[in-house]
Amino acid sequence: MFRKKRSGGLTYIAQSSTFTGDTEFTAEALIAGKLSGNVSSSHNITIEQDGLIEGKLHCAELRVSGTFKGKLNCEKLNITSTGLVDGEVNCQSMEIFEGGQFIGMRVRDEVAFLPSSKEAKPEIKQPLNNDEIEDAELSVS
What ranges does the record give for the region Disordered, renumbered to this chain (predicted)? Predict the structure, then answer.
């Protein structure tokens, strides 16, 4: 009876439509056609069963009943029983229904890089004397 109003409406990409390039949605989007390139939205995106997005995608929540291939950054990912996600996914939560497919890698946070060999130098405070070395060898055995 009372439903939450959607701000900004809904964008629908029809099954017979194909778009290539950078795309930004200012409202929720329903994709039945094909998008290729960088796609971004601060709202939710749904890929219908025949829909396809290839490239980089950044959105609030993604529901996949069709196919996504590429690099995804979202708060929540939902892969339905007919959905396929192939690529690198960075999300807070992920739900995969029976029959849904996830092929790729999931990352949760920024990757921490190890320091280079020039930066990573062991800190030596005092050299060990022979008695300390022998004691250490005996305690290891």
Answer: 116-141
Q: Give the start-to-end residue ranges of the domains of the chain.
A: 10-110
Q: What is the pLDDT of residues 33-72, one digit of tens each?
A: 999 999 999 999 999 999 999 999 999 999 999 999 999 9
Ordered alpha helix ranges (H), the chain: 130-140
User: Which one, of 32, 95, 38, 37, lies nearest residue 62 by Cα?
Assistant: 95
Q: 């219908």: which residue's tokens? A: 48
CB-based contacts of 77: which residues, under 8 Å, 6+ apart?
61, 62, 64, 85, 89, 91, 93, 94, 95
Beta strands in 4-99 (DSSP E): 10-13, 18-20, 23-25, 28-31, 34-41, 45-47, 52-64, 67-79, 84-96
Residue reference for tokens 């094909």: 34
Q: For 83-121, how does the pLDDT look when each residue is reduced to its tens digit (9 = 90+)?
A: 999 999 999 999 999 999 999 999 876 544 444 444 555
